[in-house]
Design goal:
- There is one protein chain.
- By secondary structure, this protein is mainly beta.
- The protein folds into two domains: 31 residues; 198 residues, Sandwich (Jelly Rolls).
- It contains three helices and 17 strands.
- Strands 2, 3, 6, 8, 9, 10, 11, 12 and 16 form a nine-stranded antiparallel beta sheet that branches. Strands 1, 4, 5, 7, 13, 14, 15 and 17 form an eight-stranded antiparallel beta sheet that branches.
- The longest helix has 21 residues.
- The chain is globular.
- The chain starts with a helix and ends in a 19-residue tail after the last strand.
Length: 243
């Protein structure tokens, strides 16, 4: 833009270099102040890693073929995966999406858990969970987030859904309000002031302390460091067709 105005050509060479350096410095400062939104996608198409992070396997979770491609199935008794990262650590706002299939099992299940840890590796109070409840042969979504001081539980068992089907569930936090969805249907919302969580780890198929195991399958998860509008929610993948 400066070159087109003729200003750059008229400036002495030394001054042009200084202007360029200043512009680069300003750009670098702006970039540091406004980092690009961070997104991590975990596809459950292998057991050895999720999103490039190595897993620790408990029990015998196993790969299955779903209508949308490979997924991992959990038995609701002792199957789980652990990952040594908290993919939403540091996020002041976030969107957390999971495509999964609940199949029944115990009345209370934790199918995804992000846990902050301290310098010794011990669990602390800050955590985020996706849970479900089985009610009258159907299920309802339970989402929970806490920074150790403030917390919010979103549980709406008036909104029941059939078991054995694939769903996308979503938790969105915009810095003031936590919301959760099954598909595009709002399940609950509530105001809460959460501070960003520090690094930690994750468990899938169980609570981090090996309780409340999940019976069903998981296809993928996406974690985004901003509050997405519904128009940008994860879409169900195309159905797999056989020749």
């Amino acid at each position: 833009m400066m070159r087109g105005s003729g200003y750059y050509n008229r400036a002495p060479r030394g001054r042009a270099v200084l202007l360029s350096i200043a512009a680069l410095a300003a750009l670098s400062f702006a970039s540091a102040q406004t980092p690009s939104p961070q997104t991590e996608i975990w596809k459950f198409d292998q057991l050895a890693s999720l999103g490039g992070h190595p897993t620790t396997i408990l029990g015998n979770p196993h790969l299955i073929e779903s209508p949308y491609g490979k997924a991992i199935e959990f038995n609701g008794i002792d199957d789980a995966l652990y990952v040594g990262v908290h993919p939403l650590a540091g996020a002041a706002t976030f969107t957390w999406e999971v495509i999964f299939r609940p199949d029944g099992g115990n009345a209370e299940q934790r199918f995804f858990h992000f846990q902050e840890v301290d310098a010794t590796g011990a669990n602390v109070g800050s955590r985020m969970l996706f849970e479900l409840r089985i009610v009258d042969g159907q299920w309802c979504l339970d989402s929970f987030a806490t920074d150790g001081a403030q917390s919010k539980t979103l549980l709406n068992c008036k909104a029941l859904h059939p078991l054995g089907q694939w769903y996308r569930v979503t938790a969105v936090y915009d810095g003031k309000e936590l919301k959760n969805y099954v598909g595009d249907e709002l399940q609950g919302s509530g105001e809460v002031a959460l501070t960003p969580q520090r690094p930690g780890r994750a468990s899938i198929g169980t609570r981090i302390d090996k309780r409340n195991y999940f019976k069903g399958a998981i296809l993928m998860a996406r974690m985004t460091y901003r509050a997405l509008p519904q128009t940008e929610f994860l879409k169900m993948p195309p159905l797999v067709t056989t020749p």
